[in-house]
Amino acid sequence: MIQGIDPQRPPSGPGCVECERDGGWWFHLRRCAECGHVGCCDDSLGQHATAHAGQTGHPIIQSYEPGEDWFWDYRTEQMIDGPELAPPRSHPAEQSTPGPEARVPADWREQLQRARASRDGRSG
Ligand SMILES: [Zn+2]
Ligand SMILES: [Zn+2]
Q: In CATH, which of 3.40.50.300, 3.30.40.10, 3.30.420.40, 3.90.400.10 is domain 17-123?
């Protein structure tokens, strides 16, 4: 078994834990391979998947998007192969991207672009 992956652990739910709690929305979802925490991706405003890894030390996420099964290891910053995790392996197919539909603002593209631009400005 790869350290940081628990294939028995089911995902926490159909949406980002923190965005659901705070009434936010997300772009893509990622699942912690160790504890099943579902969080939003680095292109989302909350970046809760990466925040979860930082807070807990859980090092590996898997995409929680339908049709995607790649893993990402934060320690090496590499994509890796992993075992089949406990189902469900993605959010419900009827969930919109971005989601959840009821909370996605009309100008979501602009909001994500602005967030990305300000991140790029900081790092460069
Ligand atoms: Zn989130
Ligand atoms: Zn975790």
A: 3.30.40.10
Residue 115 CA to ligand 1 center (angstroms) comes to: 14
Lowest mean pLDDT among 31-35, 42-46, 113-117, 120-124: 120-124
Q: What confidence tens digit (pLDDT) does each residue in 107-123 have?
A: 999 999 999 999 888 75
Length of the chain: 124
Report CA(4)–ligand 2 centroid distance (Å). 9
Of 7, 55, 20, 12, nearest to 37 by C-alpha is 12
CA dihedral for 35, 41, 44, 47, sign (positive or negative): positive
How high is the pLDDT of residue 62?
98
Residues around ligand 2, an ion, CB closer than 5 A? 32, 34-35, 37, 56, 58
* In the chain, domain spans: 17-123
Its pTM stands at 0.94
